Amino acid sequence: MHFSVLVFPGTNCDHDCHFVLSKVFNQKVHYVWHQEKSLGVTDCVVVPGGFSYGDYLRSGAIARFSPIMDAVQNFAERGGLVLGICNGFQILLEAGLLPGAMLRNQGLRFICKDVFLRTENNQTLFTRSLSQGQILTIPIAHMDGNYFAEPDALEEMKSNSQVVFRYCDRDGSLSAEANPNGSIDSIAGIINKRGNVFSLMPHPERCCESSLGSTDGRFIFESIIQDF
Amino acid sequence: MKVKVQVTLKKSVLDPQGEVIRKGLHSLGFDEVEQVRMGKYFELDVRTERRQDLEIRISQMCEKLLSNPVIEDYALFFPEEEG
């Protein structure tokens, strides 16, 4: 499988994504600089984390106008797989490829720690190696991860099973304490209606080897690669 | 022509920064402050011949880039036209 990892000025998780996909999963991976107009040969675009354009104006607001984003839009419209992680999630929201927006964390602090996630939809191309309700331990590292959508938009997402991951406690229960950033409805990851554009705030690429404390991130990449 | 653009979170969106500022003001003794909403402010210097087009163009800028319509509202001010 061919993966494209986008690189914007200020992206800093591109090498982690490249390493995991090429070295842990033995897939073909290439970087795509944001000034490019073509993705090259690709089956899945990864929009990695970081601080594209220094988070100027709003996280992801400037990156969405980079030349490469037209190619990403076209790729997504043709049904291509797009995975957004952290700042990648913010960029895809700003680009309108996913519904909603990110606000500053409720506690106004940058949060970098492991969180528990509950699998809310394992019927996606990004989560099919998980069981429904499975609890994962994956780290977050963000300042603007407080997901927001208007009530109508949220209802529509829920009725289409577009909420893929929620923040939970060790036992899988939802609570304000287990919600690190104040996200509406404890939302940590969502997918578009068509099922080909998925994003999450936690960093699965940071936990794919046991030496890093958790291998739960593997489930996401295994789901994408499985049967391809 | 100079245009001032003010971007604030929608009323339906919680503003955690504004809330912290309100508490800060209270701790300084400004108990009369009931609400604080924090926002962004832009000053644009725009080349324009037609005044009516200007407002449309600036609104487009706000909707495409200066604000995120999902969470923010914007307001335009034209200081050169104020008395």
Task: State the gist of this model.
The complex is a heterodimer of chains A (228) and B (83). Chain A is α/β, with parallel strands linked by helices and 228 residues long.
Describe this entry's structure for a reader:
- The complex is a heterodimer of chains A (228) and B (83).
- With 228 residues, chain A is α/β, with parallel strands linked by helices.
- Helix content of chain A is 20%, strand content 26%.
- Chain A contains 5 helices and 11 strands; from the N terminus they run βαββαβαββββαβββα.
- In chain A, the strands form 2 sheets. Chain A has a 9-stranded mixed beta sheet, sandwiched between helices. A two-stranded antiparallel sheet of chain A has the order 5-8.
- Chain A is globular, with a radius of gyration of 16 Å.
- Chain B has a single domain, classed as Phosphoribosylformylglycinamidine synthase subunit PurS (Mth169, Chain: A), CATH 3.30.1280.10.
- By secondary structure, chain B is of the alpha+beta class.
- In chain B, strands 2-1-3 form a 3-stranded antiparallel beta sheet, covered by helices on one side.
- Chain B has helices at residues 16-27, 51-66, and strands at residues 2-9, 39-45, 72-77.
- The relative contact order of chain B is 0.32.
- At the A-B interface, loops of A face helix 1 of B.
Into which percent range does the helicity of residues of chain A fall? 10-25%
What's the total count of β strands of chain B?
Answer: 3
Biggest sheet: strand arrangement of chain B:
2-1-3
The rounded Rg of chain A comes to 16 Å
**CATH class value of chain A:** Alpha Beta
Number of domains of chain A: 1
The separation of the N and C termini of chain A measures: 7 Å
For the report, how would you describe the main beta sheet of chain A?
9 strands, mixed
Biggest sheet descriptor of chain B: 3 strands, antiparallel
Most extensive chain contact?
A-B, 19 and 12 residues
Classify the secondary structure makeup of chain B into a structural class.
Answer: alpha+beta
Judging by the overall fold, what is the CATH architecture of chain A? 3-Layer(aba) Sandwich
Question: What is the radius of gyration of chain B computed over CA atoms, rounded to a whole number of angstroms?
Answer: 16 Å
Could you tell me the mean pLDDT of chain B? 93
Structural class call of chain A reads: alpha/beta
Strand content of chain B: 25-35%
Which assembly state applies to the chains in this document? heterodimer
Q: What is the CATH third-level topology name of chain B?
A: Mth169, Chain: A
Label the CATH architecture of chain B: 2-Layer Sandwich
Strand/helix succession of chain A:
EHEEHEHEEEEHEEEH
Task: Give the overall shape of chain A, derived from the CA principal axes.
Answer: globular
